[in-house]
Amino acid sequence: MNVVEAVDLRRTYRITTGTIRRRSRDVEAVRGVSFSIREGELFGLLGPNGAGKTTTIKMLNTLLIPTSGSAHVLGFDVVRDARRVREKVGYVFGGDRGLYERLSALDNLRYFAELYAVEPRRQRVRIDELLGLVGLEGRERERVESYSRGMRQRLHIARGLLHDPPVLFLDEPTIGVDPVGARELRALIASLAKAGKTVLLTTHYMFEADSLCDRIAVIAKGEIVAQGTPQQLKARVEQSGVVEVEVFGIDQESIGRIEALADVLAVTVEEQEQEQLLIVQTAPGAELTHVILAQLQGVAVGRVAFREPTLEDAYVQLVTA
Amino acid sequence: MTRPARLVWLGLLFHFKHLSRNAFAVTATTIWPLVYASLAYFMFQAGSEPEALLVASLGAAVMGIWSITTVEAADSIQRQRSLGVLELLVAAPTPFWTVLLPITIASSAIGIYSVVSTLLWGRLLFGIPLELEQPLLFALAIPPTIVSIGLLGFVMSSVIVRFRAGWAVGNMFEYPVWLVTGLLIPVALLPAWVEPISWVLAPTWGMRALSEAAFARGSPLEDIAMCLLLSAIYTLVGATLLGRFLESARRRATLSLT
Protein backbone atom coordinates (compact mmCIF):
# COMPACT_ATOMS: atom_id res chain seq x y z
CA MET A 1 0.00 0.00 0.00
CA ASN A 2 1.28 3.46 -0.91
CA VAL A 3 1.25 5.80 2.07
CA VAL A 4 2.53 8.86 0.20
CA GLU A 5 1.83 9.53 -3.44
CA ALA A 6 2.96 12.56 -5.40
CA VAL A 7 1.88 12.93 -9.01
CA ASP A 8 3.39 15.57 -11.27
CA LEU A 9 3.79 18.07 -8.41
CA ARG A 10 4.78 21.53 -9.50
CA ARG A 11 5.46 24.67 -7.51
CA THR A 12 6.24 28.11 -8.86
CA TYR A 13 7.46 31.05 -6.78
CA ARG A 14 7.22 34.68 -7.75
CA ILE A 15 10.57 36.39 -7.22
CA THR A 16 10.66 40.18 -6.98
CA THR A 17 13.79 42.23 -7.59
CA GLY A 18 14.54 45.94 -7.31
CA THR A 19 13.47 48.51 -4.74
CA ILE A 20 11.89 51.33 -6.70
CA ARG A 21 11.41 49.66 -10.06
CA ARG A 22 10.24 46.28 -8.87
CA ARG A 23 10.23 43.45 -11.34
CA SER A 24 8.69 40.04 -10.81
CA ARG A 25 9.43 36.75 -12.47
CA ASP A 26 8.28 33.22 -11.86
CA VAL A 27 10.74 30.56 -10.79
CA GLU A 28 9.80 26.89 -10.98
CA ALA A 29 11.16 25.33 -7.78
CA VAL A 30 9.56 21.93 -8.36
CA ARG A 31 8.87 20.75 -11.90
CA GLY A 32 6.65 17.71 -12.19
CA VAL A 33 7.84 15.53 -9.31
CA SER A 34 6.23 12.08 -9.00
CA PHE A 35 7.00 9.31 -6.54
CA SER A 36 5.30 7.01 -4.09
CA ILE A 37 6.32 5.67 -0.69
CA ARG A 38 5.14 2.31 0.56
CA GLU A 39 4.03 1.57 4.11
CA GLY A 40 6.97 1.22 6.50
CA GLU A 41 9.46 2.39 3.89
CA LEU A 42 12.27 4.85 4.55
CA PHE A 43 12.38 6.91 1.39
CA GLY A 44 15.12 9.45 0.72
CA LEU A 45 14.84 12.60 -1.33
CA LEU A 46 18.44 13.38 -2.15
CA GLY A 47 19.61 16.55 -3.82
CA PRO A 48 21.85 19.60 -3.55
CA ASN A 49 20.79 22.87 -1.91
CA GLY A 50 18.03 24.56 -3.88
CA ALA A 51 17.03 21.36 -5.69
CA GLY A 52 13.42 21.53 -4.47
CA LYS A 53 13.53 19.03 -1.57
CA THR A 54 12.06 21.34 1.08
CA THR A 55 9.46 22.73 -1.30
CA THR A 56 8.34 19.18 -2.08
CA ILE A 57 8.09 18.24 1.58
CA LYS A 58 6.18 21.45 2.36
CA MET A 59 3.63 20.62 -0.32
CA LEU A 60 3.22 17.15 1.15
CA ASN A 61 2.70 18.45 4.69
CA THR A 62 0.15 21.09 3.53
CA LEU A 63 2.28 24.18 4.24
CA LEU A 64 2.39 25.04 0.55
CA ILE A 65 -0.37 24.62 -1.99
CA PRO A 66 0.99 23.04 -5.21
CA THR A 67 0.77 25.14 -8.34
CA SER A 68 -0.38 21.98 -10.12
CA GLY A 69 -0.31 18.22 -9.70
CA SER A 70 -1.62 16.25 -6.77
CA ALA A 71 -0.42 14.51 -3.63
CA HIS A 72 -2.02 12.17 -1.12
CA VAL A 73 -0.95 10.99 2.31
CA LEU A 74 -2.73 7.83 3.49
CA GLY A 75 -5.33 8.56 0.84
CA PHE A 76 -6.01 12.13 1.98
CA ASP A 77 -5.53 14.94 -0.50
CA VAL A 78 -2.97 17.47 0.76
CA VAL A 79 -5.07 20.42 -0.43
CA ARG A 80 -8.65 19.33 0.21
CA ASP A 81 -8.07 17.25 3.37
CA ALA A 82 -5.27 19.32 4.91
CA ARG A 83 -6.39 18.75 8.51
CA ARG A 84 -6.55 14.95 8.11
CA VAL A 85 -3.09 14.96 6.53
CA ARG A 86 -1.72 17.02 9.45
CA GLU A 87 -3.13 14.50 11.94
CA LYS A 88 -1.21 11.69 10.24
CA VAL A 89 2.13 13.40 9.70
CA GLY A 90 4.97 14.32 12.01
CA TYR A 91 7.16 17.09 10.59
CA VAL A 92 10.73 17.67 11.71
CA PHE A 93 13.22 20.02 10.13
CA GLY A 94 16.89 20.59 10.77
CA GLY A 95 18.60 23.64 12.19
CA ASP A 96 18.49 25.80 15.27
CA ARG A 97 15.01 27.22 14.91
CA GLY A 98 11.54 25.83 15.55
CA LEU A 99 11.46 25.89 19.36
CA TYR A 100 10.50 28.36 22.08
CA GLU A 101 13.99 28.92 23.38
CA ARG A 102 13.17 30.78 26.59
CA LEU A 103 11.05 27.90 27.77
CA SER A 104 12.01 24.38 28.78
CA ALA A 105 11.84 21.27 26.63
CA LEU A 106 8.96 20.12 28.82
CA ASP A 107 7.02 23.35 28.20
CA ASN A 108 7.60 22.99 24.46
CA LEU A 109 6.48 19.37 24.39
CA ARG A 110 3.39 20.03 26.53
CA TYR A 111 2.31 22.86 24.26
CA PHE A 112 2.73 20.88 21.05
CA ALA A 113 1.02 17.88 22.67
CA GLU A 114 -2.03 20.14 23.09
CA LEU A 115 -1.81 21.34 19.49
CA TYR A 116 -1.61 17.74 18.28
CA ALA A 117 -4.60 16.70 20.41
CA VAL A 118 -2.71 14.23 22.57
CA GLU A 119 -5.17 13.25 25.31
CA PRO A 120 -4.42 15.24 28.47
CA ARG A 121 -4.20 12.02 30.54
CA ARG A 122 -1.71 10.50 28.07
CA GLN A 123 0.48 13.59 27.71
CA ARG A 124 2.80 13.08 30.66
CA VAL A 125 3.39 9.40 29.87
CA ARG A 126 3.95 10.10 26.18
CA ILE A 127 6.36 12.95 26.87
CA ASP A 128 8.35 10.76 29.29
CA GLU A 129 8.50 7.97 26.68
CA LEU A 130 9.78 10.36 24.04
CA LEU A 131 12.31 12.03 26.33
CA GLY A 132 13.68 8.55 26.98
CA LEU A 133 13.66 7.68 23.28
CA VAL A 134 15.66 10.77 22.29
CA GLY A 135 17.92 10.67 25.34
CA LEU A 136 16.82 13.93 26.96
CA GLU A 137 15.47 12.55 30.22
CA GLY A 138 16.75 14.56 33.17
CA ARG A 139 17.33 17.64 30.98
CA GLU A 140 13.69 18.42 30.20
CA ARG A 141 13.32 21.27 32.70
CA GLU A 142 16.25 23.25 31.29
CA ARG A 143 15.64 26.14 28.94
CA VAL A 144 16.05 25.16 25.29
CA GLU A 145 18.43 28.10 24.75
CA SER A 146 21.02 26.18 26.80
CA TYR A 147 20.78 23.10 24.55
CA SER A 148 23.40 22.04 22.00
CA ARG A 149 22.41 21.73 18.34
CA GLY A 150 22.21 17.94 18.67
CA MET A 151 19.95 18.15 21.73
CA ARG A 152 17.66 20.61 19.96
CA GLN A 153 17.43 18.28 17.01
CA ARG A 154 16.51 15.37 19.27
CA LEU A 155 13.88 17.57 20.90
CA HIS A 156 12.54 18.37 17.42
CA ILE A 157 12.16 14.67 16.74
CA ALA A 158 10.39 14.13 20.06
CA ARG A 159 8.03 16.98 19.16
CA GLY A 160 7.32 15.42 15.77
CA LEU A 161 6.47 12.08 17.39
CA LEU A 162 4.15 13.40 20.12
CA HIS A 163 0.94 12.28 18.40
CA ASP A 164 2.50 8.97 17.32
CA PRO A 165 2.07 9.71 13.61
CA PRO A 166 2.28 6.83 11.12
CA VAL A 167 4.15 9.08 8.67
CA LEU A 168 7.25 11.18 9.38
CA PHE A 169 8.68 13.90 7.18
CA LEU A 170 12.27 14.65 8.17
CA ASP A 171 13.74 17.63 6.35
CA GLU A 172 17.54 17.51 6.64
CA PRO A 173 17.42 16.50 10.32
CA THR A 174 21.18 16.11 10.74
CA ILE A 175 22.22 19.40 9.16
CA GLY A 176 24.79 21.22 11.27
CA VAL A 177 24.97 18.49 13.91
CA ASP A 178 28.44 17.24 14.91
CA PRO A 179 29.47 13.77 13.64
CA VAL A 180 28.74 11.96 16.89
CA GLY A 181 25.36 13.67 17.29
CA ALA A 182 24.52 13.01 13.64
CA ARG A 183 25.34 9.33 14.04
CA GLU A 184 23.01 9.13 17.06
CA LEU A 185 20.28 10.84 15.09
CA ARG A 186 20.70 8.42 12.19
CA ALA A 187 20.42 5.48 14.60
CA LEU A 188 17.24 7.05 15.98
CA ILE A 189 15.78 7.49 12.48
CA ALA A 190 16.63 3.88 11.61
CA SER A 191 14.89 2.70 14.79
CA LEU A 192 11.77 4.69 13.87
CA ALA A 193 11.63 3.01 10.46
CA LYS A 194 12.14 -0.35 12.13
CA ALA A 195 9.22 0.44 14.43
CA GLY A 196 6.97 0.66 11.37
CA LYS A 197 6.90 4.40 10.65
CA THR A 198 6.82 5.46 7.03
CA VAL A 199 9.59 8.02 6.69
CA LEU A 200 10.37 10.58 4.02
CA LEU A 201 13.89 11.89 4.62
CA THR A 202 15.45 14.74 2.68
CA THR A 203 19.19 15.09 2.78
CA HIS A 204 22.16 16.12 0.73
CA TYR A 205 24.47 13.64 2.45
CA MET A 206 24.94 10.62 0.19
CA PHE A 207 26.25 8.34 2.91
CA GLU A 208 23.21 9.17 5.03
CA ALA A 209 20.81 8.23 2.25
CA ASP A 210 22.87 5.14 1.46
CA SER A 211 22.97 3.89 5.02
CA LEU A 212 19.34 4.67 5.94
CA CYS A 213 17.06 4.58 2.92
CA ASP A 214 15.26 1.66 1.32
CA ARG A 215 14.79 3.72 -1.83
CA ILE A 216 16.10 7.08 -2.99
CA ALA A 217 14.87 9.69 -5.45
CA VAL A 218 17.58 12.06 -6.64
CA ILE A 219 16.22 15.54 -7.25
CA ALA A 220 18.05 18.28 -9.14
CA LYS A 221 16.74 21.63 -10.40
CA GLY A 222 13.21 20.70 -9.35
CA GLU A 223 13.07 17.39 -11.20
CA ILE A 224 13.60 13.80 -10.16
CA VAL A 225 16.52 12.59 -12.23
CA ALA A 226 16.76 9.05 -10.87
CA GLN A 227 14.89 6.78 -8.51
CA GLY A 228 15.65 3.37 -7.06
CA THR A 229 17.39 1.49 -4.28
CA PRO A 230 20.91 2.65 -3.34
CA GLN A 231 22.23 -0.45 -5.14
CA GLN A 232 20.31 0.41 -8.32
CA LEU A 233 21.67 3.95 -8.29
CA LYS A 234 25.22 2.72 -7.80
CA ALA A 235 24.71 0.28 -10.68
CA ARG A 236 24.11 3.25 -12.99
CA VAL A 237 27.75 4.20 -12.66
CA GLU A 238 29.25 0.77 -12.01
CA GLN A 239 30.77 0.50 -15.48
CA SER A 240 32.34 3.96 -15.34
CA GLY A 241 35.55 4.88 -13.57
CA VAL A 242 36.77 7.61 -11.24
CA VAL A 243 40.15 9.32 -11.43
CA GLU A 244 41.21 11.16 -8.27
CA VAL A 245 44.08 13.65 -8.47
CA GLU A 246 45.53 15.52 -5.50
CA VAL A 247 46.28 19.06 -6.72
CA PHE A 248 47.61 22.26 -5.15
CA GLY A 249 45.91 25.47 -6.27
CA ILE A 250 43.98 24.29 -9.30
CA ASP A 251 42.36 27.11 -11.33
CA GLN A 252 38.95 27.30 -12.98
CA GLU A 253 40.50 27.28 -16.44
CA SER A 254 42.11 23.87 -15.91
CA ILE A 255 38.85 22.49 -14.54
CA GLY A 256 37.04 23.82 -17.61
CA ARG A 257 39.54 22.08 -19.92
CA ILE A 258 38.99 18.76 -18.15
CA GLU A 259 35.20 19.14 -18.24
CA ALA A 260 35.41 19.66 -21.98
CA LEU A 261 37.24 16.37 -22.59
CA ALA A 262 35.38 13.62 -24.41
CA ASP A 263 34.30 10.74 -22.11
CA VAL A 264 34.38 12.94 -19.00
CA LEU A 265 31.02 12.58 -17.24
CA ALA A 266 31.46 14.83 -14.20
CA VAL A 267 34.17 16.87 -12.47
CA THR A 268 34.18 17.98 -8.83
CA VAL A 269 36.82 19.60 -6.65
CA GLU A 270 36.87 18.98 -2.89
CA GLU A 271 38.80 21.39 -0.68
CA GLN A 272 41.08 19.56 1.72
CA GLU A 273 43.55 20.89 4.31
CA GLN A 274 46.37 22.19 2.10
CA GLU A 275 45.34 20.75 -1.22
CA GLN A 276 42.29 20.03 -3.34
CA LEU A 277 41.02 16.66 -4.54
CA LEU A 278 40.02 16.67 -8.19
CA ILE A 279 37.47 13.92 -8.85
CA VAL A 280 36.81 13.07 -12.50
CA GLN A 281 34.18 10.52 -13.51
CA THR A 282 34.87 8.89 -16.83
CA ALA A 283 32.75 6.94 -19.30
CA PRO A 284 32.85 3.10 -19.19
CA GLY A 285 36.09 1.76 -20.68
CA ALA A 286 37.75 5.17 -21.07
CA GLU A 287 41.32 5.53 -19.79
CA LEU A 288 41.83 9.25 -19.33
CA THR A 289 44.43 9.53 -16.56
CA HIS A 290 47.23 10.79 -18.83
CA VAL A 291 44.91 13.13 -20.75
CA ILE A 292 43.68 14.62 -17.48
CA LEU A 293 47.20 15.12 -16.17
CA ALA A 294 48.13 16.82 -19.45
CA GLN A 295 45.47 19.47 -18.73
CA LEU A 296 47.08 20.26 -15.38
CA GLN A 297 50.20 21.96 -16.68
CA GLY A 298 51.49 24.49 -14.16
CA VAL A 299 49.50 22.92 -11.32
CA ALA A 300 51.37 21.00 -8.63
CA VAL A 301 50.07 17.43 -8.62
CA GLY A 302 50.28 14.94 -5.77
CA ARG A 303 48.75 11.49 -5.51
CA VAL A 304 46.84 10.07 -8.50
CA ALA A 305 44.42 7.16 -8.08
CA PHE A 306 41.84 5.25 -10.07
CA ARG A 307 38.91 3.74 -8.19
CA GLU A 308 35.44 2.18 -8.49
CA PRO A 309 32.51 4.61 -8.37
CA THR A 310 30.47 5.04 -5.18
CA LEU A 311 26.89 6.21 -4.60
CA GLU A 312 28.30 9.70 -4.17
CA ASP A 313 29.74 9.52 -7.70
CA ALA A 314 26.36 8.37 -9.00
CA TYR A 315 24.76 11.31 -7.26
CA VAL A 316 27.30 13.82 -8.58
CA GLN A 317 26.86 12.50 -12.09
CA LEU A 318 23.08 12.73 -11.83
CA VAL A 319 22.88 16.24 -10.41
CA THR A 320 25.55 17.75 -12.63
CA ALA A 321 24.28 16.18 -15.86
CA MET B 1 -13.73 22.45 29.12
CA THR B 2 -14.15 22.15 25.33
CA ARG B 3 -11.06 21.53 23.21
CA PRO B 4 -10.94 25.04 21.66
CA ALA B 5 -11.40 26.62 25.12
CA ARG B 6 -8.64 24.39 26.56
CA LEU B 7 -6.35 25.26 23.65
CA VAL B 8 -6.93 28.98 24.09
CA TRP B 9 -6.46 28.86 27.87
CA LEU B 10 -3.30 26.70 27.85
CA GLY B 11 -1.94 28.63 24.85
CA LEU B 12 -2.49 31.86 26.77
CA LEU B 13 -0.57 30.55 29.80
CA PHE B 14 2.23 29.23 27.57
CA HIS B 15 2.70 32.43 25.59
CA PHE B 16 2.30 34.64 28.67
CA LYS B 17 5.13 32.67 30.29
CA HIS B 18 7.22 32.94 27.12
CA LEU B 19 6.62 36.69 26.78
CA SER B 20 7.26 37.28 30.47
CA ARG B 21 10.79 35.99 29.87
CA ASN B 22 11.25 38.60 27.15
CA ALA B 23 13.07 41.47 28.85
CA PHE B 24 12.08 43.95 26.13
CA ALA B 25 8.37 43.22 26.34
CA VAL B 26 8.28 43.35 30.13
CA THR B 27 10.44 46.46 30.39
CA ALA B 28 8.48 48.22 27.69
CA THR B 29 5.11 47.46 29.20
CA THR B 30 6.31 48.51 32.65
CA ILE B 31 8.31 51.63 31.77
CA TRP B 32 6.41 53.21 28.89
CA PRO B 33 3.22 53.84 30.88
CA LEU B 34 5.29 55.54 33.60
CA VAL B 35 6.36 58.11 31.05
CA TYR B 36 2.77 58.58 29.89
CA ALA B 37 1.57 58.77 33.48
CA SER B 38 4.19 61.38 34.37
CA LEU B 39 3.26 63.51 31.37
CA ALA B 40 -0.43 63.15 32.16
CA TYR B 41 0.25 64.09 35.79
CA PHE B 42 1.92 67.35 34.84
CA MET B 43 -0.85 68.11 32.33
CA PHE B 44 -3.64 67.52 34.82
CA GLN B 45 -1.80 69.01 37.77
CA ALA B 46 -3.07 72.46 36.74
CA GLY B 47 -6.59 71.41 37.77
CA SER B 48 -5.22 69.81 40.90
CA GLU B 49 -8.22 67.51 41.21
CA PRO B 50 -7.30 64.12 42.70
CA GLU B 51 -9.94 62.41 40.54
CA ALA B 52 -8.51 63.87 37.33
CA LEU B 53 -5.08 62.62 38.32
CA LEU B 54 -6.37 59.08 38.86
CA VAL B 55 -8.22 59.22 35.53
CA ALA B 56 -4.93 60.23 33.91
CA SER B 57 -3.23 57.39 35.68
CA LEU B 58 -5.84 54.86 34.50
CA GLY B 59 -5.67 56.30 30.99
CA ALA B 60 -1.91 55.80 31.00
CA ALA B 61 -2.36 52.18 32.13
CA VAL B 62 -4.82 51.41 29.31
CA MET B 63 -2.52 53.28 26.90
CA GLY B 64 0.20 50.89 28.05
CA ILE B 65 -2.00 47.86 27.37
CA TRP B 66 -2.90 49.18 23.94
CA SER B 67 0.71 50.09 23.12
CA ILE B 68 2.03 46.69 24.03
CA THR B 69 -0.80 45.14 22.02
CA THR B 70 0.02 47.13 18.90
CA VAL B 71 3.73 46.50 19.26
CA GLU B 72 3.69 42.94 20.57
CA ALA B 73 0.46 41.47 19.19
CA ALA B 74 1.06 42.99 15.77
CA ASP B 75 4.58 41.67 16.06
CA SER B 76 3.57 38.27 17.39
CA ILE B 77 3.33 36.63 13.97
CA GLN B 78 6.74 38.00 13.05
CA ARG B 79 8.08 36.64 16.32
CA GLN B 80 6.72 33.16 15.53
CA ARG B 81 8.32 33.51 12.09
CA SER B 82 11.72 34.47 13.45
CA LEU B 83 11.57 31.64 16.02
CA GLY B 84 10.84 29.30 13.12
CA VAL B 85 7.68 27.98 14.77
CA LEU B 86 5.03 29.60 12.58
CA GLU B 87 5.10 26.75 10.07
CA LEU B 88 4.97 24.18 12.87
CA LEU B 89 1.93 25.91 14.35
CA VAL B 90 0.22 25.97 10.95
CA ALA B 91 1.17 22.31 10.33
CA ALA B 92 -0.67 21.24 13.51
CA PRO B 93 -4.13 19.71 13.02
CA THR B 94 -5.74 22.51 15.02
CA PRO B 95 -7.78 25.44 13.71
CA PHE B 96 -5.17 28.16 13.48
CA TRP B 97 -7.36 30.77 15.14
CA THR B 98 -7.20 28.77 18.38
CA VAL B 99 -3.40 28.99 18.13
CA LEU B 100 -3.06 32.66 17.23
CA LEU B 101 -5.76 34.01 19.51
CA PRO B 102 -3.99 33.15 22.80
CA ILE B 103 -0.72 34.52 21.40
CA THR B 104 -2.25 37.96 20.92
CA ILE B 105 -4.20 37.89 24.19
CA ALA B 106 -0.97 36.95 25.98
CA SER B 107 0.63 40.02 24.39
CA SER B 108 -2.01 42.32 25.81
CA ALA B 109 -2.13 40.37 29.09
CA ILE B 110 1.39 41.41 29.90
CA GLY B 111 -0.21 44.87 29.92
CA ILE B 112 -1.25 43.89 33.46
CA TYR B 113 2.28 44.97 34.42
CA SER B 114 1.36 48.35 32.97
CA VAL B 115 -1.74 48.72 35.19
CA VAL B 116 0.18 47.78 38.33
CA SER B 117 3.26 49.90 37.57
CA THR B 118 1.23 52.98 36.58
CA LEU B 119 -0.98 52.97 39.66
CA LEU B 120 1.99 52.38 41.96
CA TRP B 121 4.04 55.07 40.18
CA GLY B 122 1.24 57.61 40.60
CA ARG B 123 0.79 56.70 44.25
CA LEU B 124 4.46 56.60 45.23
CA LEU B 125 5.83 59.49 43.19
CA PHE B 126 2.94 61.93 42.79
CA GLY B 127 0.81 60.93 45.76
CA ILE B 128 -2.25 60.19 43.61
CA PRO B 129 -4.73 58.51 45.97
CA LEU B 130 -5.55 54.93 45.10
CA GLU B 131 -9.04 55.04 46.49
CA LEU B 132 -11.18 52.83 44.33
CA GLU B 133 -14.90 53.19 45.05
CA GLN B 134 -15.76 49.71 43.74
CA PRO B 135 -12.58 47.65 44.01
CA LEU B 136 -14.28 44.35 43.16
CA LEU B 137 -15.88 45.74 40.03
CA PHE B 138 -12.57 47.40 39.17
CA ALA B 139 -10.83 44.00 39.39
CA LEU B 140 -13.68 42.47 37.39
CA ALA B 141 -13.23 45.06 34.64
CA ILE B 142 -9.54 44.33 34.10
CA PRO B 143 -9.78 40.87 32.37
CA PRO B 144 -12.44 41.88 29.78
CA THR B 145 -10.48 45.06 29.07
CA ILE B 146 -7.28 43.11 28.45
CA VAL B 147 -9.00 40.32 26.49
CA SER B 148 -10.96 42.68 24.24
CA ILE B 149 -7.87 44.77 23.48
CA GLY B 150 -5.93 41.55 22.83
CA LEU B 151 -8.62 40.40 20.43
CA LEU B 152 -8.37 43.68 18.54
CA GLY B 153 -4.68 42.75 18.24
CA PHE B 154 -5.81 39.33 16.97
CA VAL B 155 -7.64 40.99 14.06
CA MET B 156 -4.47 42.94 13.24
CA SER B 157 -2.30 39.81 13.52
CA SER B 158 -4.43 37.88 11.06
CA VAL B 159 -3.41 40.35 8.36
CA ILE B 160 0.28 39.86 9.15
CA VAL B 161 0.05 36.12 8.42
CA ARG B 162 -0.24 37.14 4.79
CA PHE B 163 1.41 40.57 4.66
CA ARG B 164 4.76 40.73 6.44
CA ALA B 165 4.82 44.53 6.51
CA GLY B 166 1.47 44.58 8.32
CA TRP B 167 3.19 44.99 11.70
CA ALA B 168 4.34 48.47 10.66
CA VAL B 169 0.76 49.44 9.86
CA GLY B 170 -0.29 47.98 13.20
CA ASN B 171 2.20 50.21 15.00
CA MET B 172 0.80 53.24 13.18
CA PHE B 173 -2.49 52.74 15.03
CA GLU B 174 -0.86 53.20 18.42
CA TYR B 175 -1.26 56.98 18.90
CA PRO B 176 -4.52 57.57 16.96
CA VAL B 177 -6.31 54.98 19.10
CA TRP B 178 -5.16 56.73 22.30
CA LEU B 179 -6.90 59.85 21.08
CA VAL B 180 -9.99 58.32 19.55
CA THR B 181 -10.81 56.12 22.54
CA GLY B 182 -10.54 58.87 25.14
CA LEU B 183 -7.41 57.64 26.88
CA LEU B 184 -5.73 61.04 26.63
CA ILE B 185 -8.64 63.43 26.55
CA PRO B 186 -12.41 62.88 26.74
CA VAL B 187 -13.95 61.85 23.41
CA ALA B 188 -16.54 64.62 23.92
CA LEU B 189 -13.82 67.18 23.23
CA LEU B 190 -13.13 65.68 19.81
CA PRO B 191 -15.15 66.29 16.58
CA ALA B 192 -18.52 64.52 16.57
CA TRP B 193 -17.53 62.07 13.82
CA VAL B 194 -14.88 60.55 16.06
CA GLU B 195 -17.39 59.18 18.55
CA PRO B 196 -18.84 56.36 16.35
CA ILE B 197 -15.28 55.22 15.66
CA SER B 198 -14.60 55.03 19.41
CA TRP B 199 -17.62 52.71 19.87
CA VAL B 200 -16.04 49.90 17.83
CA LEU B 201 -12.69 50.11 19.62
CA ALA B 202 -12.28 48.05 22.79
CA PRO B 203 -10.03 50.50 24.71
CA THR B 204 -12.97 52.97 24.83
CA TRP B 205 -15.14 50.56 26.81
CA GLY B 206 -12.27 49.18 28.84
CA MET B 207 -11.32 52.68 29.97
CA ARG B 208 -14.94 53.52 30.77
CA ALA B 209 -15.36 50.31 32.75
CA LEU B 210 -12.23 50.96 34.80
CA SER B 211 -13.02 54.60 35.55
CA GLU B 212 -16.68 53.93 36.39
CA ALA B 213 -15.59 51.21 38.80
CA ALA B 214 -12.92 53.49 40.28
CA PHE B 215 -15.21 56.48 40.87
CA ALA B 216 -18.63 54.80 41.22
CA ARG B 217 -20.06 57.10 38.55
CA GLY B 218 -22.30 54.31 37.39
CA SER B 219 -22.26 50.62 36.79
CA PRO B 220 -19.32 49.37 34.75
CA LEU B 221 -21.30 46.27 33.83
CA GLU B 222 -22.62 47.77 30.60
CA ASP B 223 -19.09 48.69 29.55
CA ILE B 224 -17.86 45.22 30.48
CA ALA B 225 -20.70 43.77 28.38
CA MET B 226 -19.57 45.95 25.47
CA CYS B 227 -16.02 44.65 25.90
CA LEU B 228 -17.34 41.09 25.73
CA LEU B 229 -19.56 41.86 22.73
CA LEU B 230 -16.65 43.44 20.88
CA SER B 231 -14.49 40.45 21.86
CA ALA B 232 -16.97 38.11 20.17
CA ILE B 233 -17.08 40.30 17.05
CA TYR B 234 -13.28 40.62 16.88
CA THR B 235 -12.94 36.81 17.26
CA LEU B 236 -15.38 36.21 14.41
CA VAL B 237 -13.82 38.82 12.13
CA GLY B 238 -10.26 37.74 13.00
CA ALA B 239 -10.97 34.03 12.49
CA THR B 240 -12.63 34.70 9.12
CA LEU B 241 -9.80 36.94 7.93
CA LEU B 242 -7.22 34.50 9.24
CA GLY B 243 -8.71 31.59 7.26
CA ARG B 244 -8.48 33.60 4.06
CA PHE B 245 -5.04 35.06 4.69
CA LEU B 246 -3.63 31.68 5.72
CA GLU B 247 -4.87 30.09 2.50
CA SER B 248 -3.32 32.98 0.57
CA ALA B 249 -0.02 32.63 2.48
CA ARG B 250 0.14 28.91 1.63
CA ARG B 251 -0.57 29.72 -1.99
CA ARG B 252 2.01 32.53 -2.15
CA ALA B 253 4.60 30.84 0.06
CA THR B 254 4.93 33.72 2.52
CA LEU B 255 4.65 31.67 5.73
CA SER B 256 8.35 31.07 6.18
CA LEU B 257 9.52 34.51 5.07
CA THR B 258 10.96 36.60 7.89
Count the DSSP helices of chain B. Answer: 12
Q: Which percent range describes the beta-strand content of chain B? A: under 5%
Average of pLDDT of chain A: 89
The amount of helix of chain A comes to: 25-40%
In the CATH scheme, what's the topology name of the largest domain in chain A?
Rossmann fold
The succession of helices and strands of chain A, N to C, reads: EEEHEEHEHHHEHEHEEHEHEEHEH
The tally of structural domains of chain A comes to 2
Task: Determine the mean pLDDT of chain B.
Answer: 83
Give a structural overview.
The complex is a heterodimer of chains A (321) and B (258). Chain A is of the alpha/beta class. The longest helix of chain A is centred in the middle third of the chain and has 16 residues. The radius of gyration of chain A is 23 Å and the shape is globular. Chain A starts with a strand and ends with a helix. The relative contact order of chain A is 0.13. The mean pLDDT of chain A is 89. Chain B is mainly alpha-helical and 258 residues long. Chain B has one domain. In chain B, 78% of the residues lie in helices and 0% in strands. Chain B contains 12 helices and no strands. In chain B, helix 3 runs antiparallel to helix 6, helix 3 runs antiparallel to helix 11 and helix 5 crosses helix 7. At the A-B interface, strand 1, helix 2 and helix 3 of A face helix 1, helix 4 and helix 12 of B.
